[in-house]
Amino acid sequence: MGTIRTERTGEVLVVTIDRPDSRNALTADALAVLRDRLADASAPVVAVRGAGSAFCAGADLATVDALDGDDARSFSRLGQAVADALAGYDGATVAAIDGPARGGGVELALACDLRVCTPRSTFAESGVTLGLFGAWGGTDRLVGTVGRSVAMDLSLSGRVVDAEEALRVGLVSRIVDDPLAVAHAVADNDAGAVRTIKGLLAEPADGDRQFEREREAFAALVEARAKRKD
């Protein structure tokens, strides 16, 4: 069974995928634990990282090879639930990437609000090289993040890109020496403002409706700020 460790440090909940011998590949059990830990989380910021020298190798291949069709659907659904939990978390989520991210590991990172990596990090949608593909929401989120052309390139070739290329195409937002420091910097901001901004940017409405949402959200934050000063 894969191990998921959590540690609250200040306003940041650090979630560590702790299977370094398998480059933090995720079994069904590990995904279920990760889903439940995210459901129980209440910290303003959640940072996801991998133990050892990798971020996450994606789905555990021994698990995948033992699946039948119905099991495969359930496994995909479970991975999608984890990614959705990250994307829909009531607070900011940061993928703190240090080392290789492959397949499902890229998909989990895509579900986070911020993706920051170290210079030694690499990325690949490597499922195609195994006769598979990422089925944890990646076909939607990858296009939304890097655009259809780049998404096609990465997904159809399975090629590995380094941190600099990942930054250039928008797969990550920053290259840093300490990804967790970014999570703590976000947590230093007002939690209510972070939640509000995330909601407005993650699910924008059309046209005038978005402007109305901005006005109402801004007014609510101004009122909250005034109450804190009283």
From TrEMBL:
Q: Does the keyword Isomerase apply?
A: yes
Q: Which Gene3D superfamilies match?
A: 2-enoyl-CoA Hydratase, Chain A, domain 1
Name the PANTHER family for this protein: ENOYL-COA HYDRATASE, MITOCHONDRIAL (PTHR11941:SF54), ENOYL-COA HYDRATASE-RELATED (PTHR11941)
Q: Which domain of life is it from?
A: Archaea
Which residue stretches, if any, does this entry annotate as coiled coil?
none
Q: Pfam families per the record?
A: ECH_1
Query: What is the protein's given name?
Result: Enoyl-CoA hydratase/isomerase
- Give the record's GO biological process terms: fatty acid beta-oxidation
User: Is Iron tagged as a keyword?
Assistant: no
Q: What GO molecular functions are on record for this protein?
A: isomerase activity
Family according to the record: Belongs to the enoyl-CoA hydratase/isomerase family.
Q: Which UniProt keywords apply?
A: Isomerase
